[in-house]
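Subject: two folds for Thursday's group meeting

Dear M.,

Sorry for the delay on this. The cluster queue was jammed most of the week, so I only got both jobs back this morning. I'm pasting them in the order they finished. Each block is the input sequence followed by the predicted structure tokens. Could you check whether the formatting survives your parser before we put anything on slides? The first protein is the one we discussed after the seminar.
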Amino acid sequence: MKNIGQMMKQAQEMQSKMTDIQDKLSDLEIEGSSGAGLIKVILSGKNDVRKIKIDTSLINPKEPDVLEDLLIAAFNDAKSKVENEVNSRMSEVTGGLQLPPGFKLPF
């Protein structure tokens, strides 16, 4: 019975730490870029778009596809960086515990 009490305490501590990390992720800003830095997308740690910066040299009404592709690439770069940061912070809490496939934290 002593082990169950200890496990419950550890679970509560882990939940508290995860809640703290989730709160901090809202304030986190991570930048992704493409086109050698001519496009920048800044996301929060919860994948909310905070800012998009476009170098004016890329604005060509005759070639919108180029700008669209670069925006997608910059967003995907930022999203990948956010996922890596979230996984890194969560692994600190879980102590490297491997979660089941498809199980994502904190979302």
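Second protein, same layout:
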Amino acid sequence: MTIEDLYELAVNNLTNEHVMLDLGIVDNELATKIFAETGVDLTGFVISIDNYGIRHAIERHGNSKTEIPRGQVPLQKSDFYTAIEIVMEADNFRYDFRGKIDHSNLKESLVFDKIIADCHYFVSLEVRTVVKREKLSRLVFQTMYIKKIAAP
């Protein structure tokens, strides 16, 4: 399955079927940078995207009527192809912690950003640390948005 296939599933199949696609593994260089700045150890974490994350991002940041007044660019299918590049080659990143949500576990996220051409891309990934041997710890795509950089 490709990101394009996953995108099509997310926007055209609105069932609760959950489909996840692994995009890569956090490399040692990135894991070292993140640990030095945030104290979060992501060594060996798998970077993943799922249909729920894509659907959420499109619903929140895909409408030109809401995004343009915010100074943002509505998400297009092709923007999801750059998500892994934004994470692996981020200009900056920051740790984002939220308390319990709906009586679930604490939610930790990292927000990665990168300037590409005249746009500032932001990708938020949830940190899912697993302690069971047969499961993988993951950084899972939560959302994405794009801010237009104003011309000087």
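Two things I noticed about the second structure. Residues 3-148 form one domain. The chain is about 30% helix and 35% strand.

Cheers,
T.
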